[in-house]
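Translate sequence into structure tokens.
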Amino acid sequence: MKKLPFYLTLSRIVGAPFLGLVFFLNEPLAWWFSAALFIALSITDYFDGMLARKYNVVSNFGKFFDPTGDKILVLFALIILLHLKNLDPYVVIILLCRDIFIGTIRSYAASTGLVIAARPIGKWKTGFQMVAIPLMLAPVDQIFFIPTFLAGHILLWLAAALSIWSLIDYSLILIRSLKTV
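Result follows.
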């Protein structure tokens, strides 16, 4: 049971390429499968952290690979949507640049002995992304009279705004830690 958080994190990394089924099976069933798979893999993000804390197996590995699993899953889905011309490329550019920059900050901080765990604002950003993407993948026009595709776009732009905010947050943590060294 103590290895389960590790396997849940790994499932996002290994499962993300299966979203590519939309390329090979361009029919509604494939889109539903991709949306359902994305939701299932997204849910593992909640459970791996919860179980790691419950069984006291929080590790530096988890602190690094949990957000990496999220990024791989989300970016794979965003690239699919971008390829299908269902997504504004500027959203992907903002999210991708932020993730690269945050990864650099966290790596540099780790090289100085500081491990920066995922921050609440980054978790909100990830949450918005993980709600938005299935709305854009599922072949349904609306849910409760809300246009799903439009809702997905709005949520992704909100995630992009939160990305910029979290980038500032991580940068300030690094700057503060450098002042104390």
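Note: DSSP finds seven helices and two strands in the chain.
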